[in-house]
Each structure stands twice: as C-alpha cells, then as structure tokens.
C-alpha cells in the first residue's frame, strides 16, 4: 500500500503543491493515518518523519501537527492495538472465528495498520514499545475479551488466541515458510477454526471430564 495523494495523471510534486483546502478534513486525516501506518510499519518510529508522512499525502507537515498534535500522538493513534482489534470486541463470540479467519487469510499485503510485533522490533525505544504493546493486549484480550468467554482459564485462552493470531500473521506475511505460504485458504481456514473454537470455549466433553470430580480421567461409569 502506497498512499501518494496524487490524482490520475499528477506527479507527486504536483500533488504536493495542490491546495489542501480542496480536500475535506476527514479525508485528509484518513489519508494521513494510512500513510503513517504504512511508514511506521515499514520503517519504524525513528525511521519515519512527519515530513515524509505529509509528503505521501501531498500536504504540508504543519497539517499533521494541526490534526494530531505531534508525531508521537499520530504514532499512538494508528498503531494502538486497541484500535486494530476494536471490531473484535463487538463481534458475537460465535462469529469471532469468522472475524479472525477474514483477518488472517488472503494474500500477504500491507494492511491498514503496521504489525504490532514489527513495530516493537523496529522501535529504538524497545522497552517502552514492549510496555505499550503489553498494556494494549492486556486491555483488549486479558480483560475485555476474556470477560466475554465462559469456562475456565478465560484470560489464558484469550491471550493464547492473541499469540496465535500474531504469530500466524507474522509468519504468513513476513517470514513465509513454504507450507504456510502455499497452503490453500480453505485448508488453512480449517485448522485455524479448529484451534480458535477450542480457545473460545472448551467443548462440553472437556467440561464433563473435569467438572465436579477433580479427576480428569473420571467417567460416569467409574465406581
């Protein structure tokens, strides 16, 4: 994904000179967020400048500060994990496998947000970035998603779901090992759904084996 802000037939230089008032404020903010997400994801925080982001959209850098206040505020606006996964928190639990499969499947491409793990790895302030990522995931998965799950170890299952999703997306889009990169979507989806459904809610058989006996091998016929 490359956001240039140029119209058909325009050069980037022409686009940069086009008056900003011809854009709506909403469209300009959206374009700046998209350009920032791409650059932060590809080059990291230190390797991205406000001037570069503004240039991608064809506006003056001052407009970035006007809309977002600072480079750090724009970074937080586009890379916050809570923003990436906010739609997940409004999905009915039974449709969460659909949501995750839609997020993970398809050909690798630059998404609307930089990958959270890559953002951490490319950040010069690694400790601060890790702490921010941990706080975001704790809020979204450990607290809010886990509160919607039934059964034991809901917080652990929610975090495992996040770990599997992040690992799968990173392997599929960046590392691209041969089996994962070449697997048909239908095959990959079958395995993804099986794991996601287990983490979202233990099967009734699991509950029957472990509830009220203290013995995971106990069956109703045991005497």
Automatic annotation (TrEMBL):
Region of interest: Disordered: 1-26, 202-223
The HTH tetR-type domain, residue ranges: 26-86
Top-rank lineage group of the source organism: Bacteria
Keywords: DNA-binding, Transcription, Transcription regulation
Compositionally biased spans, kind Basic and acidic residues: 204-223
Stored SUPFAM superfamilies: Homeodomain-like, Tetracyclin repressor-like, C-terminal domain
Pfam families: TetR_C_16, TetR_N
Keyword Transcription: yes
DNA-binding region ranges: 49-68
Key word ATP-binding present: no
PANTHER family on file: HTH-TYPE TRANSCRIPTIONAL REGULATOR BETI, HTH-TYPE TRANSCRIPTIONAL REGULATOR RUTR
Name of the protein this chain belongs to: TetR/AcrR family transcriptional regulator
